[in-house]
Every structure is written in structure tokens, then in C-alpha cells.
């Protein structure tokens, strides 16, 4: 990939890699969801991201790629994850405009718009024990790194680390949203499956920028 920007092909590769990582970990995600949810997160995400992969060649601009990804996730991923991931990608696509490359700043801005859309849709906040606990610290770390003059590669790496830390921080939390919240205190002691799958977004982007 080119040194310090993300092209349409890079972003398609990001989504392809995300689908692969989800597929490799679908059993694990389902195990996490069976502890505090309804044991479908792995299968749902694997079905949705596999469907996304079949659409990637159709997009001829970044906004089209991201919007199509969002719409595909909404229509193929069941449960609450589909609308939330779908909203994030659709809002991200709406924020980029019809372009072929994104600077790191533009990528950060678009992803943050996506995350804000997800937050509005899910009416969720930090420490509700959701995917937001992985997504928000990561985009904050990414933007901070870029502000400080880090390369795209280094900014993605620090976002990946922040995402993993945010994911792991969900373990002691008591869930305040979704099916896990029905368990009350018994939801503590388990990693949130949505935070786990959201961290794969950064694992996938790390692989793309390293390549
Ligand atoms: Mg579920």
C-alpha cells in the first residue's frame, strides 16, 4: 500500500481481512456470546462479513464501498450487531465523499462519524460493556497519534492497542445495554463479544498497513 494514505483498494482489503479474521474466530465469538447473550454473534458476523466480501469489487469510490458494506451488514447480520455495525459503516461512507483515497486525518474523521452514528443508534456510552468500549478509545488513540505527527502505520498500531485494552476492560463491567444487561451483576467477569469483534477491525487494518 502507499505510504501514508488509504486507497479504495486498501479499504476493500481491510474489509476482506476483517471477514477472514471474523471467520477464523467465529467459534470464539459465539462462545463469548453464549456466556452473556444468545450465542449467535460469531455466526451472525461471519455471515454478514462474508456477504460484504462479495460486494467489494462493485464499488468504484470509497463512499460507495463503505455505504454498501453498511447496507449489507444491516441486511445480513442478525441481532443488534447488524444495525449497529451497519450504521457505523453507512455513516462513515456518508462522511468521506466520492473519493479514491483518504488521508489518515480523513479516515479518522470518517470513522469517528461512523462511531458517533453507532452511539446515537444504540443509545450507548462508554462502560455499558459494548463494542463502544473498544471503538472509542481506539479512534481517540488514532486521532491523537496523527495529531502528534505519527505515520499512518504507527497511528493504526496505537489504535489497535487501545482497542484491545478497551475490549479487555469490558470483562469486569456490568452490562447496561443489550441482552447481557438482563443478567445484571452476572454479566461481570465476561468479555463483551461486540467489543471482541470490533477490535478485529483494528487487527485487520494493522495487517493492511503492514503489508
Ligand atoms: Mg447475540
How is this structure best described in words?
This protein has 211 residues and is mainly α. The chain has a single domain (6-210), classed as DhaL domain (Serine Threonine Protein Phosphatase 5, Tetratricopeptide repeat). Helix content is 67%, strand content 2%. The protein has nine helices and two strands. It has helices at residues 8-24, 26-36, 41-53, 62-76, 81-96, 104-122, 132-147, 152-168, 193-210; strands spanning 6-7, 101-102. The protein has a two-stranded antiparallel ribbon with strand order 1-2. Helix 1 packs across helix 9 (193-210) and helix 4 (62-76) runs antiparallel to helix 5. The longest helix has 19 residues, at 104-122. The protein starts with 5 loop residues before the first strand and ends with a helix. The model has no long low-confidence stretch (mean pLDDT 95). It binds magnesium ion (MG). Residues 33, 37-38, 40-41, 79 line the site of magnesium ion. This is Dihydroxyacetone kinase subunit DhaL. InterPro entries: DhaK_L_YcgS, DhaL_dom, DhaL_dom_sf, Dihydroxyacetone_Kinase. It holds the Pfam family Dak2.
Amino acid at each position: 500500500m502507499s505510504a501514508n494514505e488509504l486507497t479504495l483498494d486498501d479499504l476493500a482489503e481491510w474489509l476482506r481481512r476483517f471477514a477472514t479474521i471474523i471467520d477464523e474466530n467465529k467459534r470464539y465469538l459465539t462462545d463469548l456470546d453464549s456466556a452473556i447473550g444468545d450465542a449467535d454473534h460469531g455466526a451472525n458476523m461471519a455471515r454478514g462479513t462474508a456477504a460484504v466480501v462479495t460486494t467489494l469489487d462493485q464499488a468504484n469510490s470509497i463512499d460507495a464501498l463503505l455505504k454498501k458494506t453498511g447496507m449489507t451488514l444491516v441486511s445480513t447480520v442478525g441481532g443488534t450487531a447488524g444495525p449497529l455495525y451497519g450504521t457505523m459503516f453507512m455513516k462513515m461512507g456518508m462522511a468521506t465523499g466520492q473519493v479514491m483515497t483518504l488521508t489518515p486525518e480523513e479516515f479518522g474523521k470518517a470513522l469517528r462519524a461512523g462511531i458517533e452514528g453507532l452511539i446515537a443508534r444504540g443509545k450507548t456510552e462508554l462502560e455499558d460493556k459494548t463494542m463502544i468500549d473498544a471503538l472509542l478509545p481506539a479512534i481517540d488513540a488514532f486521532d491523537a497519534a496523527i495529531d502528534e505527527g505519527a505515520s499512518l502505520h504507527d497511528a493504526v498500531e496505537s489504535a489497535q492497542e487501545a482497542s484491545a485494552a478497551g475490549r479487555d476492560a469490558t470483562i469486569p463491567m456490568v452490562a447496561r445495554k443489550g441482552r447481557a444487561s438482563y443478567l445484571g451483576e452476572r454479566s461481570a467477569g465476561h468479555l463483551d463479544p461486540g467489543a471482541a469483534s470490533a477490535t478485529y477491525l483494528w487487527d485487520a487494518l494493522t495487517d493492511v498497513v503492514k503489508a
